[in-house]
Design goal:
This protein has 254 residues and is an alpha/beta fold. It contains 11 helices and 5 strands.
């Protein structure tokens, strides 16, 4: 019987679906797989457009209990909320009320199919949105207003932090803060007394490079993400990879 590798699973929306792409010479999933090579497989279960209701509905089909033929999940990264935070307007129905978002997140990370694997759970805060850019694009698409608002998105990120704090063993990965800190530190002449970056009446600053369409991340932003995830995965004991080192297979070489 084949010997399966245990897994790191990326579960979320388009922000994880897009993590497999190479942008500006960087791939989040590629970098994470390189970090875990020979110890764990990185599996992408990102679904563009999904909210927590969609993810919870399909979770039993996505995650099966561990078995001899079904690898164990060692690490589960959950990144959901960018679509839950959509404003309820006639042209967009992705939004989920914030109280329901919190309840859904808790149900996802405490689901029996997840608990059967006993993974280390990394709950990722949804990144910021650049409402200035999103507004221009959404109006051009025919929406009567922006589908997302920076302050509303920030509230959903705060809710994810609260969920992580309430459930023992869950680790928060604060992507929202990391992206904003990067943008603030690299935006020249930022007026600290004015609106935050990406908010109406303010400026886009470096969010223009980090979130080109106001929502989805660039390669540079995914690099920021990888840097805050990497410390939580591993370390891996030397000599204990799934299959033996070549020197073990070919003894006697120098």
């Amino acid at each position: 019987m084949a010997k399966p590798y245990n897994q790191v699973v990326l579960f979320g929306d388009s922000l994880f679906q897009g993590a497999s792409a190479v942008q500006d010479g960087f791939s989040f999933q590629g970098a994470l797989q390189n970090h875990c090579i020979r110890y764990l497989d990185v599996i992408n279960r990102g679904f563009s457009g999904y909210n927590t209701k969609n993810a919870l509905q399909l979770l039993p089909q996505i995650f099966l209990p561990p078995s001899p033929s079904n690898p164990k999940i060692e690490y589960l990264l959950v990144l959901l909320g960018a679509n839950d935070a959509c404003i309820p307007i006639p042209t967009n129905t992705q939004g989920i009320p914030i109280d329901q978002y919190k309840e859904n997140l808790i149900k996802i990370i405490t689901h029996d199919h997840i608990k059967a694997h006993n993974p280390k759970i990394l709950l990722v805060t949804p990144p910021p949105v650049d409402e200035i850019r999103i507004t221009a694009l959404d109006l051009a698409l025919g929406h009567p207003q922006a589908t997302r608002q920076a302050a509303v998105s920030a509230a959903y990120s705060e809710t994810a932090r609260k969920v992580a704090a309430e459930i023992p063993g869950v680790v928060v990965v604060d992507l929202q803060k990391a992206i904003m800190d990067k943008a603030v530190s690299t935006t020249p002449d930022l007026d600290a007394s004015g609106p935050p970056l990406g908010y109406p009446g303010g400026k886009r600053g470096t969010l223009e490079q980090l979130l080109p369409d106001g929502l989805h991340m660039s390669g540079e932003a995914y690099k920021v993400f990888f840097d805050i995830v990497k410390p939580h995965i591993g370390p891996f004991p030397e000599g204990q990879a799934v299959f033996p080192d070549w020197r073990v297979m070919n003894p006697g070489t120098i």
